[in-house]
Amino acid sequence: MYLDYAATTPLDPRVAEVMVMQLKENYGNASSVHAFGRKAKVVLEESRETIARSIGADTAEVFFTSGGTEADNHALVGAAFAQRRVAGKDHLIVSAIEHHAVLDCVAYLSTLGFCVSYLPVDERGRVQPDVLRELITPRTALVSIMHANNEIGTIQPIEEISTITKEYGIIFHCDAVQTVGKIPVDVAKLGVDLLSMSAHKIYGPKGIGAIFIRKGTPIDALLHGGAQERKHRAGTENVPLIAGFAKAIELADGERTEIYDRVASMRLSLRTKLLQSVPGLVVHGDEQHMLPHILNVSLNSSVYENNDESLLLNMDLRGVAVSSGSACTSGSVQPSHVLMAMRCDERSARSAIRFSFGKYTTIEEVERAGNTYISLIQSIYHQHTVHH
Fold it and tell me: Is 105 designated active site?
């Protein structure tokens, strides 16, 4: 059973239908002036309008990318270079728990002469706006803080942060890949200048995303060539994927409250079940500011001295697809940078499992997954006690 919706989601059949139609019938290049091109252009611009409306943006402020990663890179690299050239600002601030699309991008920028500061988070994975204030210098060009974290589900105080960035005239980027279509995202209310989104987290296709660029924000293009996307991103637009993205966001907005309530109750029931049945279970994140579809748990290392990294594999062997929230780099399992930033101890962090739910998840699946996890912990722990 699939309980890894935060990693990606299945394609909604209604989205697939729209895409197939476009793939078969609408093959014109949206930049061509003839009838075939104009037909593609109409779908392109209608899709852009749908997505803009969803986040409260102007149609002219939404630009298509190949996904969340490109949107993050475009925001960071584009704004960093523009700010350095225009204003001589070369300092970037990002939170310590950003997605690697942000962290690896600023690490790259630091090799090109930019200075990077990392905003810490508390034990629940939230940034403190007043700590941000202390990191700001006259050379700060950009602040990047995600709307909600993909591993633990904690939602950040974006509105408070944007008040601060506005005060200092700093560009504010927000990675909203995990939140668009799941909780309300309104760029005016959030007060952000740049925002990243992706279709495949909301039952749309992979390989398509978008970046919101507030009018007047200085930003360079990442890709150079044709004049597509008003010169912000060269390359022929993929109309079938874009139409699929628009359909997905439209459906997500329409079904949002219903899905929210369903997955939130699943999360609560699994959380309750695991806390009751697994002594020393730690639930990560901030319950007061939490996405409804993510539950990240690990084992307290004082109770389980031998935390088993094969938990994930064992869950998979028992037919439950979940994630560890940690990236396996070069064969060594690194504990999650998110949990480490939350001052979770390393042994406990290594036992982390992220359950994430979606609109096709059933309460029976959640029950079964919970039972599987509980019996697995009992068998592993039993083995370890026998060995001692």
Answer: no
